[in-house]
Design goal:
This protein has helices spanning about 80-85, 90-100, and strands spanning about 10-15, 30, 35-50, 60-75, 100-110, 115-130, 135-150. It has about 160 residues and is mostly beta strands. It has one domain (about 5-150): Pnp Oxidase, Chain A (Roll). The longest helix is centred in the middle third of the chain and has 10 residues, at about 90-100. The relative contact order is 0.23.
């Protein structure tokens, strides 16, 4: 067995496919340039239930699901050619500022289903840091709305 190296896992976004679609069009996905880390975090809340059958015992049932993608990276200038292949922090800031819903996926180069997560998202937080004599960085939280898919669309 071979463990994954996190540097092989990227976050890609699709801002072209209409957000009324169920899934993204993979050909429209572009990786975010120069990420230093990305993550998926999911939570399921619990609902406590008591009824005449349970007596004085509370029963916990799974309730609502919520999840986010988290990303951190370096703010990079992109040439015209690079902008055709990558999105950068400016694209993310514009999506955040406008409250745009779009598609995002965490994947490796082979779209291996072991690390694949895809969902419709919107950016709920965005920050930039400009330290003196150091690399300028950004971070963002992409809040997932709707289903999370754990395998790419097969053609």
């Amino acid at each position: 067995m071979t463990p994954y190296d996190g540097s092989d896992v990227v976050l890609e976004i699709d801002t072209t496919t209409a957000n009324t679609a169920t899934r993204s069009v993979y050909a429209n996905m572009k990786p975010i340039a120069c990420l230093t880390s990305n993550s998926f975090d999911g939570q399921r809340s619990s609902q406590t239930v008591t009824n005449k059958c349970s007596g004085d015992k509370e029963e916990s049932q799974p309730s609502t699901f919520s999840a986010t993608f988290g990303i951190e990276g370096h703010i990079e200038k992109l040439t015209v050619d690079e902008a055709g292949d990558f999105d950068n922090s400016k694209v993310l800031f514009d999506l955040f500022k406008d409250g745009t819903v779009f598609f995002a996926a965490i994947t490796d180069a082979t779209n291996d289903i072991n690390v694949y997560k895809e969902a419709k998202v919107w950016i709920s937080s965005y920050s930039e840091s400009y330290p003196t004599k150091d690399v300028v960085t950004f971070s963002a939280t992409l809040t997932i709305t709707g289903d999370v898919y754990d395998a790419p669309v097969t053609p």
